[in-house]
Amino acid sequence: MQQHLRNTKQPFTKMVQLDSAPALVVVDMQNGFCHKQGSFAKMGMQSEPTAIIPHINELRSAFRAANIPVFFLRTGYNADYSDRRGRDARDRVEELQGLVRGSWDADILDELTPEPNEKVVDKTRNSGFFQTSLESTLKERGVNHLILTGVGTDVCVESTARDAYQMNFAVTTISDATGTCNKPDHLAALHTLRIFGGTASTAEVIEALQKSQDLRNQRMS
């Protein structure tokens, strides 16, 4: 089984050639999850964003330059949490009034403020597909390959990747543009996510994107 898992990663360049309509998806890069003053930091569960923010912005710039859509997923709840399900150790979010829709805690980090043409999809569950407009919007845009970044690798990123895979989207999770509360959980999630599409680095994606654009330009000339 372990040998099988080691062999599941496809070269990203081949995936780009096979899937000609990608989109970049930035998952839950919000103050509540990532900022040192956010609700999850107060619970000792902060995802450390410092290392991944530059990679996400590098990808955003490359995708915008290539006229490829960029989407943000954003978790947020009603003030009374009537739309939040599940009772677990993270219920302190409610005590701290965390991730209330429209609050600073639910806002996307200042360093990643979406551009006007970058669509924000609000959600109340781990997956970006559960009771949201994400699937219909992607299909309207003709997207068939999701490039996933953000937090947490082992929760909302993985949940979104699994659902995307079941919906017949190609999926690639970016190893150095995702993160979670600790490195072992991040690495374990990446290992699993190789089954649901593949993983790649920011540099690999940008290189493959450039090659794909060059190929298209050659065909048009």
TrEMBL record:
Pfam families: Isochorismatase. Residues 23-203 form the Isochorismatase-like domain. Keywords: Hydrolase. SUPFAM superfamilies: Isochorismatase-like hydrolases (SSF52499). GO terms for molecular function: hydrolase activity. Belongs to the isochorismatase family. This is Peroxyureidoacrylate/ureidoacrylate amidohydrolase. It comes from Lachnellula hyalina. The lineage of its organism: Eukaryota, Fungi, Dikarya, Ascomycota, Pezizomycotina.
